[in-house]
Amino acid sequence: MGRCRHSSASVVHENAYLSDFHHCFLVQQNSSGSTESNFGSRLDGINVILGRQGESCSSACRAKGQSCVPSRLAELNKCQILQKYMRCKNGCFPSLGPDQPAEVVDEAPKNLNPGACLYMQMDDRLTCDGSHRHTRRLCPCA
């Protein structure tokens, strides 16, 4: 299923665009070929915590008397895991940002895709300290 982002200034009528230049993308889910049981064993000893809106994983873990484990963020940075812990009612999308993996809160502006889960395609950029005022992070704490 594909989706297009547009504004009233870029369309004539429904899917009739003023120009050939518009932003459409395919809704995809990432998959590593791993099974749920494999994910579970990789998260042994980790408490998966859902942070509050706008909160970093460092802060969310600290509030529980624990520390964020940055080496385990990659295990949570998968649609299959995000969907296990979050609603992801508007899909799961690749994104760039220090606040991932995360879910966009329902109250976020429509252009941010409220209810969508976001994962980062480059695991080496994942950090415990990232946050965004319109997301809730999924955090590995110990």
Automatic annotation (TrEMBL):
InterPro entries: GT18_cat, SPRING1. The keyword Electron transport does not apply. Keywords: Glycoprotein, Golgi apparatus, Membrane, Transmembrane, Transmembrane helix. It comes from the Eukaryota. GO terms for molecular function: alpha-1,6-mannosylglycoprotein 6-beta-N-acetylglucosaminyltransferase activity. Residues 27-141 form the Glycosyltransferase family 18 catalytic domain. The keyword Transmembrane helix applies. One of its GO terms (biological process) is positive regulation of SREBP signaling pathway. PANTHER family: SREBP REGULATING GENE PROTEIN. This is SREBP regulating gene protein. It comes from Aegilops tauschii subsp. strangulata (Goatgrass).
